[in-house]
Records
---
Amino acid sequence: MSERKIKNYLKTKYELKIYFEELNGEYVGYIQMSDSRFKVEHLLYTKKKLPSWDTLHRGGINYILEMALFDGTQSILVRQHNEKFLVLECDVDGSEPTDSYFIATPEAYKMKIAQIWEDEESEFGEHWNVLEPKALMFAGFDATQGGKS
């Protein structure tokens, strides 16, 4: 497994807004807002530009509960955590083991989750290295079944 760096940040809502507005690529993924059930218009099954911050937040009465984005190489996961937001970023190159899970939408989309493992020295000594799980990152939708089942 290749060595990679998982970046993680805790951001305020204002810092998350700046971060979100700087994401100017095209992504697949989903955005779950705090004030409603999952909306199909927040599912980016094909690569698209993100909706505007103001479109998502409707006057600031809601917030991003969870967001997972993938641009083909970088995975971004955002989760609301108390009054802040946890942001994880990791490069995903396709060599990782993946699992597919259904997403709760009217259509049966399956998302791919990449397992990120890193080589670490074993706690049992003898200078052995073992693979340790570090993160589960969104890696797009399962194309082998057309993303739907």
---
Amino acid sequence: MTFSSTNLSENPDFAAWSSNDFSLLSGSPCIDAGNPSSEFNDPDGTRNDMGAFGGSYGDWDPAAVP
């Protein structure tokens, strides 16, 4: 996988993008590929994932957003 400052060149392996499920499948290259600073770690203490569900706020529910 290659990164630029804002993009990656591989399929992120979303669960079901066609139905707006942008959670990551277990083999996604975006898992543990987010900001390496420990302040952004996932709730389980691992390096954060790229995307909306990574990091310390990674357990939010997009369906609850008005």
